[in-house]
Specification:
16 helices; 3 domains; alpha/beta; Rossmann fold; 7-stranded parallel β-sheet; single chain; 4-stranded mixed β-sheet; 44% helix; globular; Rna Polymerase Sigma Factor, Chain: A
Length: 396
């Protein structure tokens, strides 16, 4: 398998020192659950934004060299109340400092949104391998991140169950023999609803995912199917594949996590229960499958697996993601920034569910796309897009 970004090859039982960015979110908590049961995995750093109560609980079990808190008020409060004796760092500068520690064997990026871009880039510049749960990094800055990883001989392995599935399907295969990659999607909680019903969707309904337990932002993205759109963009960079060779298939049971079809028509699929600890453990221990006490898949109990084509008219966010890949440049950066603002507005009940793609599409049509590949331009386009979407929301 010739994957230019996969320069990771852990020997069995090798000691791996980890910086976990975003330890208090859904992925971070599940990552620590995996690490608790892995004597060869050592936590170097833990970070959070505002969830200092969860961080304090984690420090009862783990003894990192330092922690980072990115929210200023939470940082000040934590310093007053904690019994932690290690270094307490603040903000983006703190994140950069911990990822630049040469003792890190692996940086796990489980931050939410664009906040993951700079720390991921800094880790890769250091030549450190990255396990990426922050899909927005490759969506917003895919070409730049791809080139930095290659230049510094650093590996990127995705924690997403779909990309983990693709990776496992490609073991022993040649990339030039891929006909297409098929990402599966649960369809979220609203797959069976009509487009007219989208007007009445409430926040609590959108946060009620049928299969996965995730943070608020990614759960709303799943409900709009933007999450799958972001994964399509991410797959393009992770596997260095033309987006025209990427398909999406609705699979409501979330048992088949993705498939790869080859030039001779044969298809490989990776199956497993919808438990994020499985792809997390594979990303950390790649290419090894260690023995964990996770629940096992029983296909006879499940009985039936169903499949449907996605409705691109009803789930406009998915179509917008494919459109951005076709457009190229920093269109995906605009898409991601606008989506983050629109999702936050929906969670705060400033807009309704069906207005999320409307805000994103208007922003895409209004912000001038750039084809530069430098971080300064990416940051500027991100800021412009957020500002424009906020302006749209204020008028709705």
């Amino acid at each position: 398998m010739k994957n230019k970004l996969l320069n990771i090859n852990n020997s069995k039982n090798k000691i791996v020192k980890i910086a976990l960015l975003g330890s208090t979110g859904s992925i971070g908590v599940q990552t620590l659950d995996v690490i608790k049961n892995s004597p060869n995995l050592i936590i170097n750093y833990l970070t959070t934004n505002t969830r200092i109560d969860i961080l304090e609980n984690q420090l009862q079990y783990f003894t990192p060299k330092a922690v980072v808190i990115t929210d200023e008020n939470s940082y000040k409060t934590f310093k007053q109340i904690t019994k932690f004796k290690g270094a307490i760092l603040f903000g983006v500068d703190g994140l950069i400092e911990v990822v630049n520690d040469s003792e890190n064997d692996l940086v796990i990026t489980a931050l939410v949104g664009f906040a993951g871009v700079i720390p991921t880039i800094e880790a890769l510049k250091k030549g450190t391998n990255v396990a990426l749960a922050n899909k927005e990094t490759l969506v917003s800055a895919g070409e730049l991140v791809y080139n930095i990883a290659k230049k510094h001989n650093a590996g990127i392995i995705a924690i997403d169950s779909e990309h983990s599935a693709i990776l496992q399907c490609l073991i022993g295969e040649e990339f030039d023999q891929i006909e297409k990659i098929i990402l599966t999607a649960s369809g979220g909680p609203f797959f069976g609803k009509s487009k007219e019903e989208f007007k009445n969707i409430k926040v609590k309904d959108a946060l009620n995912h049928p299969n996965w337990s995730m943070g608020a932002k990614i759960t709303i993205d799943s409900a709009t199917m933007m999450n799958k759109g972001l994964e399509v963009i991410e797959a393009k960079w992770l596997f260095d594949i033309d987006y025209k060779k990427i398909d999406v298939l609705i699979h409501q049971q979330s048992i088949i996590h993705s498939l790869v079809q080859f030039n001779d028509g044969s298809v490989k699929a990776q199956l497993g229960l919808p438990d994020m600890r499985i792809p997390i453990s594979y990303a950390i221990n790649y290419p090894n499958h260690y023995n964990y006490d996770f629940p096992r898949l029983d296909l006879a109990k499940i009985g039936n697996l169903t499949f449907d084509y996605p409705d691109y008219d009803k789930f406009k966010c998915l179509k917008l993601a494919f459109d951005c890949l076709a457009t190229g440049g920093l269109a995906p950066t605009i898409l991601n920034a606008s989506n983050e603002i629109a999702v936050n507005a929906f969670l705060n009940e400033q807009i309704n569910f069906e207005q999320i793609p409307i805000c994103i599409e208007e922003t895409l049509n209004s912000i001038e796309n750039k084809f530069d590949n430098d971080l300064e331009t990416i940051i500027e386009i991100d800021k412009q897009s957020r500002k424009y979407t906020s302006k749209i929301i204020s008028k709705l």
